[in-house]
User: Fold this.
Amino acid sequence: MFFKKKNDNNINNNDMNNENAINAENIENNNNNNKKEKRKFKDSINKKYLKNGSYSSIMIVVFVAIIIVINMIVGNLPSKYTQLDISSEKLYTIGDETKAMLKDLDKDVTIYQIAQSGSEDETISNLLQRYADESDHITVEQKDPVVNPKFVSEYTSDNLSSNSLIVVCGDRNKVVNYNNIYESTMDYNTYSYQTTGFDGEGQITSAIAYVTSENLPVLYTLEGHGEQELDSTIKEDIEKANMEIKSLNLLTEGSVPEDASCLLIDSPTTDISEDEKNALIDYLENGGKAMIFSDYTGEKMENFDAVLENYGVSRVDGLVFEGDAQHYAAQMPYYLVPTVNSTDITSDVASSGYYILMPYAQGIQKSDDVRDTVNIESLLTTSDSAYSKTDLNSGTLEKEDGDVDGPFDLGVSITETVDDDKETHIIYYSTSNLLQSQINQMVSGGNEKLVMASLSSLVDTEDSTTVSIPSKSLEVSYLTLTAYDASFWKICTIGLIPGAFLLIGFMIWLKRRKA
Assistant:
């Protein structure tokens, strides 16, 4: 029995040992499995970090490449897209007239800015860059007079101010002095010069037109009959448009010279002679161009009027007064603000919203008895309420018996085809006050713009184009109000607005009193 029990104990011990061995093996297997799982997890984490790191690196490289490409593209864009002109007068923004000229440019032009390195005028430099961006034919270069002392002497013997320009096309060149780009006037309060205008675009565009045009127009001005002297502003505009101005005395010359691109007749105070009348009509009937102004003189001008009547227009006796407050300014019914009709000549003026001011104008009347080949186009017209006062000594501004009823034209364009390749063209305005600087300032340059547009339409040809850009004023601009507008705002500021505040205050007081 004892032996059997001992054997049983041995068997149990063996079983326990086997079981412990199995358990130890299982534990070891589990530990091995856990280590494998940890290793797999760690490997997967490392792969994930490696993958994410590679993705981030690639994205950084791509982003940097995109930034570089964008900078390269932006660097090659025209300055008009990358530099905003925030100056109040748009000093280095070029206008539509200049853009149109540059678009048609077919010759290479180089513009040299004469300035030492580091002392360039930024406004001029930015403006020049706009020209280069607008046309592939424009090249801008800076020339340092210290580095290239002999460069300027190749084009001019004058001593040029710093930041002056030299515009070159082939054998032709034109110097634009820095002093002509910035306009200055004397301030007599401080006895010092003040900068009042910037004429960068006007001078540069004029210079480009000059060096690229072979045939420049010649403008003859009739003299010998007490004609008005050309206003300095208009004269500068004409010269800036590269027109050569010459005087003409028909009594000594006998006829209009063949090289005349246009004839300007500026309000003669005495009549022309019979021979002069015939010479003018002969010139016009052979395809001549003329710009004519007239003023009320109170004297008979039979020969002068005969030239106008030959083309279907005549002057109405007296001076025009406006009965519509929206068509006169400064509380004076003879300071006319006419309607600007939309034509090829006046389109820029009309679309830009400029006013035209014409003091002391006569009415222009169209004739029914004129050749069928003559075409008369109205440029400026009065309102239906206008009338021409024939008795200027009556002592009243109101319409009286004997006054001529409107409406009237104050400016007309007359054309007549005389040959297959010739056309007569006359532009006629019924007051020379249209040319005066003081009147022009009252309408912020509207008159000046109209006059130069009219002259350009007369002298422009396929071989040459005149462009005259007015300078940009750095002074306070005038606000033009018609008599109607002035009365309206006077009523608003003196009556309606204070009345509204009084009414509101009374209502508040009444409401509090009841409470």
Summary: The CA atoms of residues 113 and 142 lie 5 Å apart. DSSP finds 14 helices and 22 strands in the chain. The radius of gyration is 42 Å.
